[in-house]
Amino acid sequence: MPVLVASDLDRTLIYSAAALALTMPDARAPRLLCVEVHEARPLSFMTETSAQLLTDLGDRAVFVPTTTRTRKQYQRINLPGPEPKYAICANGGHLLVDGVTDQDWHASVQARLADECAPLAEVEEYLAKMADPFWLRKQRVAEDLFAYLVVERELLPEEWVKELAVWAENRGWTVSLQGRKVYAVPKPLTKSAAVREVARRTGAELTLAAGDSLLDADLLLVADRGWRPGHGELADADWTAPAVTALPERGVLAGERILREFLKSS
After folding, report:
1. Do the strands 41-47 and 62-65 form a parallel or antiparallel pair, or are they unpaired?
2. Phi and psi angles of residue 12, each rounded to the nearest 5 degrees, phi first
3. Cα separation of 232 and 107, whole Å?
């Protein structure tokens, strides 16, 4: 039976320049491969060793990139190795099969959101009213499924995020702070639901997963084995679960370690 490997991308397998955490002497820094270019600028990286590990993994398991990114943001990433047959975007809102949205899956997600939580428009309006221009840089909607703010992190009051989380909780939404982005995501919109669907389609009996943020917690819990790096929301909260291993590595070297763990377990 195939092994299914579902992994978050940003700050799990791929890293912006700011997130690399190259704390070693320059001469000992790993060689890096650029895997994303945006507006003619290099944006995301992994080590060359990670690139080879991911190629090996793609030959051995069903590798499923599992991201909160929109489809457009995901499709500008150029990962090494075989092209994944399945990819999960928009936090589970879109299941891509050979690069194309599965419309039946998307319709089922939309129906759940309509039944179980407050509408996106209500959340958009609240964010626009409550966000302070002093620290707000952008307000965006992703795929007509969820909303996020781009903020100046050092100016953002911690209490504001906590109060937003309480407001959202009462309406069936969840809040996550990742780097310079504050996400507001409907609770039924989960990576884990989409991963279970891919497992069903592929017949996988073993699921491995990795992620760094609160939006990855459900993904890690649905997996048979999971890993989280030593950075990110989950590490900051000291979050763990019986089948989840908390790794000490931080930054781009954590991505390398995660890939080694995937290969050892598959």
Report:
1. unpaired
2. -125, -60
3. 32
Which residue, among 198, 186, 250, has the nearest Cα to 222 in the 3D structure? 198
164-182 per-position pLDDT tens digit:
999 999 999 999 998 889 9
Q: How far from chain centre, in Å, is Cα 36? A: 15
Could you tell me the two tokens for 82?
Answer: 């075989």
127 contacts 139 by C-beta, under 8 angstroms: yes
Do 6 and 223 contact (CB within 8 A), yes or no? yes
Q: Alpha-carbon distance 228 to 209, whole Å?
A: 9
The helix or strand, by DSSP H or E, that contains position 174, with its residue range, turns out to be strand 173-178
Yes or no: say if 235 and 217 are a contact pair by the CB < 8 Å rule: no
Q: How far is CA 246 from CA 194, 240, 249, in A?
A: 24, 7, 9
Check if the beta carbon of residue 9 is closer than 8 Å to that of residue 258: no
Q: CA gyration radius for the chain?
A: 18
Alpha-carbon gap, residue 74 to 66, rounded angstroms = 10
Length of the chain (residues): 266
Distance, first Cα to last Cα, the chain: 11
Quick: pLDDT tens for 211-266. 999 999 999 999 999 999 999 999 999 999 999 999 999 999 999 999 999 999 99
Spell out a b/e string for 43-64, using b for 16 or more CB atoms within 10 Å of the CB, else e: bbbbbebbbebbbebbeebbbb
